[in-house]
Design goal:
Membrane topology: Multi-pass membrane protein
GO cellular component, one term: plasma membrane
Shape: globular
Subcellular location: Cell inner membrane
Strand content: 15-25%
Number of strands: 19
InterPro entries: CcmF_C (IPR032523), Cyt_c_assembly (IPR002541), Cyt_c_biogenesis (IPR003567), Cyt_c_biogenesis_CcmF (IPR003568)
Structural class: alpha+beta
Function: Required for the biogenesis of c-type cytochromes. Possible subunit of a heme lyase.
Length: 780
């Protein structure tokens, strides 16, 4: 047994002792206080030592360890070598365990003067122990009998510097979601359903900010690495992190409602418990292998499914069972006194977050749901499921973010509200008018864009009103502004992105989007630490004479033989120019006269200029009924070497043996043209010129070629800016709530923290306690 396994074994032993002693302390044996703290610190120390041991193995390239050999190699630069620590399943669990024990120490120190400490640390340590136990089962320190001279290396798609910071931040969010869960269990245990709110707020804010930042960094990585031009694809693994963030958002609003009006106690306890359960469930989805067919991010199964199922079921029984046991004892108040009130706005916001959570959860869980007996096979929902389902509730959420912050807790009038909304309405009208001038005409896009501008500007109005209260009061409103800007970016990019596919012959320029694109060569950029070859495209803007040399990585990853392609991006104020190569054809593979044509993109071969205009399928209905053989006609414009232009319509049909057959069509000048392949989805055809003396072939016809997709990514900066502003708002709110929580955490310790009656089921209390105007005003 190596040092890493010894450290983990000691960590598990210390953690179990800490768990038992904290539980006994909570039951009244206060003499175990120092022992509980000591063993909690010991657990953290041993996990830290195991982590340091793993990092030393990685940095020293100790390939006798299976994990190091599988995820690192000698060619990786230092930062990416460090990132291999969490590049695999076992390593990510080790990172999660490390964060869990470190934040456990923070939680312990923060509550060291509070009677809440044993009640909170008991459920928290139970979670930390489960994570550490699963990490142990994943085997981060397995040894190899025959270590290789070099490792297999990190997945080339993960060799991006965003991935060096994305997982640690995302796992910080996962870890800190355990804080509100532990406080909720402690509140139910102690039968104190109010005091936990101030203590839990900093934890849920930190979780919200880290989950949001982690999701954003994942979006940055996808945008810069995958080449499809987007930053969110509704992938099940993306969704499994998004759902806890949605629940955290709902809980944040619920805690504001309880802290200010004393209501929504049951709802907040339910959300706090559900949030952690969804973190565990997302772990099950991504780590059990159940999404292997449906997600590019999912880990393969490593025998952890059983552990994860026990993890989910056990904590669901603990959390929901305790909540059900205490349900009748939890006082209930009227959620809102009037529709035109801030309370009502918060209730609607919580409901909308919950609805969106349910939609995304059901869609993400289809691979699991479809395993039930009445489904014929495992299946997933189409990506098109999410947008139409979520968009209406997203629009309503924008409206609540606009109106709610402008309402006071007490009396409101429609006149006062309409006066407050005057400037946001004017700014929204201006934005919509400008959108129409820019030819933005999609009704759904205009609705969402208007809602986003309305939400952002309304919260700017609130900030201008309360600016003198200090920056810490602005956090929530800044986050709302960030959400509005994010929606502007999402809508602008989704509805008005422009993409054109080009086939570029080496040194032959083509013009699109007002710029001239010339493929130069496959090069080895001198400043690339990873030594990757790249497609070099020279981009010239005739309007200002500027030139950009785009170098999009395009290489074969030697260790796996995998073709890896990344885009080249030129950032602009209103949009990015995005170049993504898809295929490179070297000169040796260029067949004279064989031409791949994208719609309306002319190509020259053997002296003929060819332009694919459109598909023509006159017998579509007959083919659908099976009364005619599958046939595709393609309308093409042909310009001969002498300058004569004609239009021809070659045909491609499916023969009886399912082979594609095209008949040569005569073209002026004595040549023939045969249609050999079609791709209606991507508007792409392949043709072959014949009947020409190849000894007279132009050398340019044998030059290398590259297929690239060129996109204009509009409004992308609004998305990035919105994310940054939103996270900044969350951090300001975190600082504010942390300061408010300190006095509550410093409440004096009691010799016996809770009376014996707390462990007995209480008699049912009245279900409804109305809140009076006097009490309501006192709470504000």
């Amino acid at each position: 047994m190596n040092f890493g396994n010894i450290a983990l074994a000691l960590a598990l032993a210390a953690g179990m002792i800490a768990l038992v002693t904290y539980y006994l302390w909570a039951r009244g044996r206060t003499q175990l206080r120092e022992s509980a703290r000591l063993y909690t610190g010991a657990m953290a120390l041993f996990v830290v030592l195991a982590s340091v041991f793993q990092m030393v193995n990685i940095l020293s390239r100790s390939f006798e360890y299976e994990y190091v050999a599988k995820f690192s190699d000698r060619s990786l630069p230092t930062l990416l070598l460090i990132a291999t620590f969490w590049g695999g399943q076992a390593g990510s669990f080790l990172l999660w365990s490390l964060w869990s024990v470190l934040f456990g120490v923070v939680l312990m120190l923060g509550l060291r003067r509070s009677s809440w400490e044993p009640f909170v640390l008991t459920p928290y340590l139970l979670i930390a122990l489960c994570i550490t136990g699963i990490m142990w089962a994943s085997g981060p320190f397995k040894m190899l009998d025959n270590p290789p001279a070099d490792g297999q290396g990190l997945n080339p798609l993960l060799q991006n510097y965003w991935m060096a910071i994305h997982p640690p931040i995302l796992f910080t969010g996962f870890t800190t979601m355990a804080g509100p869960f532990a406080f909720a269990i402690a509140a139910l245990w102690r039968r104190d359903y109010d005091s936990w709110v101030k203590l839990a707020r900093p934890w849920i804010l930190l979780a919200w900010a880290c989950l949001g930042t982690g999701l954003a960094l994942g979006g940055f990585w996808a945008y810069e690495s995958l080449g499809w031009g987007g930053f969110w694809g509704w992938d099940p693994v993306e969704n499994s992190s998004f759902v806890p963030w949605l629940i955290a958002s709902a809980l944040l609003h619920g805690l504001v409602l309880q802290g200010s009006r004393g209501s929504f106690k049951r709802g907040n306890l339910l959300l706090a418990i559900t949030g952690e359960l969804m973190v565990i469930y997302s772990t099950f989805l991504t780590r059990s292998g159940i999404l292997g067919k449906f997600s590019v991010h999912s880990f393969v199964e490593l025998g952890l499914m059983g552990y994860l199922v026990i993890f989910i079921v056990g904590f669901a029984l603990l959390g929901f069972g305790l909540l059900a046991w205490r349900w009748g004892a939890i006082g209930r108040r009227v959620l809102y006194s009037a529709v035109l009130s801030r309370e009502f706005g918060l209730v609607v916001s919580i409901a909308l977050f919950v609805v969106i959570t349910l939609i995304v959860s059901i869609g993400t869980s289809m691979p699991v749901i479809s395993l039930l007996p009445f489904f014929s096979s495992q299946a997933s929902v189409e990506l098109g499921f999410y947008g139409p389902m979520v968009a209406p509730f997203g629009l309503l959420l924008l409206l609540t973010m606009s109106i709610g912050p402008l309402l006071s807790w007490q009396r409101n009038t429609y006149g006062r509200l309409s006066s407050a909304l005057k400037w946001p309405a004017i700014l929204t009208a201006i934005a919509l008018f400008a959108s129409l001038l820019l030819n933005i005409v999609y009704p759904v896009a205009l609705l969402l864009l208007g809602g986003a501008v309305f939400a952002a500007s309304a919260n700017v109005v609130v900030i201008l009103r309360i600016w003198r209260a200090g920056p810490l009061k602005l956090g929530g409103y800044l986050s709302h502004i960030g959400a509005g800007l994010l929606f502007v970016g999402i809508v602008g990019n989704a509805y008005y992105k422009q993409t054109v596919g080009l086939q570029l012959t080496q040194d032959v320029p083509q013009t699109v989007f007002g710029r001239q694109f010339t493929f130069r060569n496959i090069v080895l950029p001198p400043n690339d630490e990873l030594k990757r070859t790249a497609v070099q495209v020279e981009v010239t803007n005739p309007q200002n004479g500027g030139t950009w040399i785009a170098e999009a990585p395009y290489y074969i990853y030697a260790k796996s033989g995998q073709l890896v392609i990344h885009p080249a991006i030129q950032s602009g104020l209103w949009g990015d120019l995005y170049i993504a190569p898809s295929q490179y054809i070297p000169p040796a593979q260029v067949a004279p006269g064989r031409v791949e044509l994208l719609k309306d993109q002319p190509q020259t071969a053997l002296g003929y200029k060819l332009t694919f205009k459109q598909f023509d399928m006159p017998n579509r209905d007959a083919m659908m009924r099976g009364e005619a053989p599958p046939t595709v006609n393609v309308v093409m414009a042909v310009t001969t070497p002498s300058g004569a232009t004609t239009t021809i319509t070659p045909t491609l049909r499916v023969a009886a043996n399912q082979a594609l057959q095209g008949d040569p069509v005569p073209v002026p000048g004595g040549a023939t043209l045969t249609l050999t392949n079609v791709d209606p989805t991507n508007q792409f055809v392949t043709v072959q010129l014949g009947g020409i003396d190849l000894s007279k072939v132009d050398p340019s016809d044998l030059k290398s070629r590259v297929f690239i997709d060129i996109s204009i990514e509009p409004a992308i900066k609004f998305a990035w800016g919105g994310i940054i502003i939103g996270v900044l708002g969350g951090l300001l709110a975190l600082l504010r709530r942390w300061r408010e929580a300190r006095p509550a955490a410093d409440a004096p310790l009691s010799p016996v923290p809770i009376p014996t009656e707390a462990y007995e089921r209480p008699a049912l209390q009245p279900a409804m306690t109305p809140i009076t105007r006097t009490e309501s005003e006192a709470r504000s």
